[in-house]
């Protein structure tokens, strides 16, 4: 078994907002492995994205008579990169009944609809059919506005009393057509501007795209959502044929008034959406949080899938998770923790973990508790642990390959994971096995194929175009350990050097940690090297310097 580093006292295994602009979609990670000759970066893969690709249903909480309930099940932990953990726990939630009526007070909202090309077909058809159904049920005194967006955003209907625009709403929905690029933030921004101008209390956004939840730009999705919450505007995000990862769902649910719903193909999409409509308009609980307290002789060693900012550690060893009511009500599962002995031999033999869900609705707080012990478990929990194992080992492998300069260690970890997954009896994870096998083979092949000797050595920059990190006269060096080093020869940075790494394959070069992929060509009997970006206008012409 590969050697691993000692774990932290409490690890938060979740997308790091300092590194990733949103949880990476596993489809993108798979595409890199399937369609390029390169090894993906660690940031191309997130635990949330991997887990969201599967419906890993855990058993619903038992003996529950509260509006929202919590349950959990546990199994022995078997995580290569976390050998000190001995218990793997999955939390499950259940909502006993969806709100079946609109809020008593009048509703004032703005609907924002994605009409980009990816929405063409059943997606836009189901959105418009569902909206026609629920907007038709609004009362005369309610108010509604409509915005649509593709490459740009436009106001389809100024915020107006429903009694005055019922027929107009139907005409607008019938006329919507999909077929442009997507600028979600432009659509959300216009919808929020319309809401603020007319005092609307909620914006409902329909899209099949993944929001950039960690964008730091002033107009980034979460910045817009947080600004709306500060102004008293609730935001409801409806994922059309899209299961949101935990990072997105939790970030939105933690906002004041944040809601989300996943609209997927079904024989009665509009009918199911109609059931969720009151909650999307703000009905139901205002807040929800979970307290996890380890049993005697144990400690909580890791929280998986919950962003750091939503986790609070307590001196008594308990952990509080601010999950938000929408996440608890809609997701059902997707939060996992691991336990480890706290120094006493064997840890506890009875209750492993105490869980308590606190829900506030209409100013009243109610609680539901559950105790976790070892017993029979569902296939969903076993599959979740295998996906967590895949993620942790892949991250360690990719970091060894890209950041630590240790391709041998990276290939060893990938080969180990490949063998372990091949021995698994979980048939529905065949796609994971195929992906890991391809990555392991690619790493092994790259180790056996050192960089082309014609590239190695130092080159002088004769000319460059579109590149800010180098200029004419600088020296570029390709090393045998895949180092890409630029020695600055002029300007304020003269005398300095920057080191990156590169990957090579199929006549292309990838500069790691950038989106620069160059097609390269050796000329003049190997004395000149021409690099031309595969996508973009960047170009670099080099002449042998030694």
From TrEMBL:
Residues 108-276 form the VWFA domain. Pfam families: VWA_2. InterPro entries: CLCR, VWF_A, vWFA_dom_sf. PANTHER family: CALCIUM-ACTIVATED CHLORIDE CHANNEL REGULATOR (PTHR10579), ZINC FINGER (C3HC4-TYPE RING FINGER) FAMILY PROTEIN (PTHR10579:SF43). This is VWA domain-containing protein. It comes from Altererythrobacter arenosus. The lineage of its organism: Bacteria, Pseudomonadati, Pseudomonadota, Alphaproteobacteria, Sphingomonadales.
């Amino acid at each position: 078994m590969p050697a691993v580093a000692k774990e932290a006292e409490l690890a938060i295994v979740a997308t790091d907002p300092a590194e990733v602009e949103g949880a990476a979609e596993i489809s993108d990670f798979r595409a890199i492995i399937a369609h390029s000759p390169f090894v993906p970066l660690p940031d191309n893969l997130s635990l949330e994205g991997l887990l969201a690709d599967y419906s890993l249903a855990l058993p619903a909480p038992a003996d529950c008579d509260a509006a929202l309930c919590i349950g959990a099940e546990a199994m022995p932990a078997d995580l290569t990169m976390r050998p000190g953990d001995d218990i793997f726990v999955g939390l499950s939630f259940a909502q006993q009944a969806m709100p079946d009526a609109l809020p008593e007070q009048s509703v004032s909202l703005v609907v924002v609809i994605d009409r980009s090309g990816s929405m063409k077909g059943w997606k836009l058809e189901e959105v418009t059919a569902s909206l026609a159904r629920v907007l038709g049920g609004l009362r005369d005194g309610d108010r509604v506005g409509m915005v649509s967006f593709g490459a740009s955003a436009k106001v389809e209907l100024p915020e107006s009393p429903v009694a005055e625009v019922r027929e107009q709403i139907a005409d607008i929905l019938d006329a919507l057509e999909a077929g442009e690029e997507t600028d979600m933030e432009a659509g959300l921004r216009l919808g929020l501007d319309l809401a603020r101008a007319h005092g609307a209390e909620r914006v409902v956004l329909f899209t099949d795209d993944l929001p950039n939840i960690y964008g730091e730009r002033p107009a980034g999705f979460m910045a817009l959502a947080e600004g709306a919450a500060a102004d008293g505007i609730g935001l409801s995000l409806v994922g059309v044929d899209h299961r949101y990862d935990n990072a997105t769902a939790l970030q939105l649910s933690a906002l004041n008034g944040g809601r989300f719903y996943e609209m997927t193909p079904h024989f009665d999409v509009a009918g199911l959406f109609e059931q969720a409509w009151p909650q999307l308009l703000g009905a139901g609980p205002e807040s929800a949080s979970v307290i996890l307290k380890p049993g005697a002789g144990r400690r909580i060693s890791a929280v998986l899938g919950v962003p750091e900012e939503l986790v609070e550690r307590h001196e008594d060893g308990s952990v509080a998770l601010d999950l938000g009511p929408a996440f608890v009500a809609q997701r059902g599962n997707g939060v996992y923790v691991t336990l480890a002995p706290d120094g006493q031999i064997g840890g506890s033999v009875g209750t492993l973990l105490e869980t308590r869900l606190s829900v506030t609705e209409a100013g009243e707080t109610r609680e539901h508790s559950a105790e976790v012990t070892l017993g029979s478990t569902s296939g969903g929990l076993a599959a979740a642990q295998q996906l967590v194992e895949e993620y942790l080992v892949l991250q360690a492998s990719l970091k060894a390959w890209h950041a630590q300069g240790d391709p041998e260690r990276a290939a060893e970890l990938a080969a180990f994971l490949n063998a372990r997954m091949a021995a698994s009896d979980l048939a529905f994870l065949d796609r994971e096995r195929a992906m890991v096998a391809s990555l392991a083979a690619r790493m092994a092949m790259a180790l056996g194929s050192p960089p082309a000797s014609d590239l190695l050595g130092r080159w002088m920059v004769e000319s460059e175009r579109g590149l800010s990190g180098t200029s004419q006269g600088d020296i570029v060096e390709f090393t045998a350990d895949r180092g890409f080093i630029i020695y600055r020869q002029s300007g304020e940075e003269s005398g300095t050097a920057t080191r990156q790494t590169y990957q090579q394959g199929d006549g292309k070069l990838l500069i790691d940690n950038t989106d620069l992929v160059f097609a390269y060509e050796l000329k003049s009997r190997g004395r000149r090297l021409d690099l031309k970006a595969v996508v973009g206008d960047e170009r670099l012409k080099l002449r042998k310097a030694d």
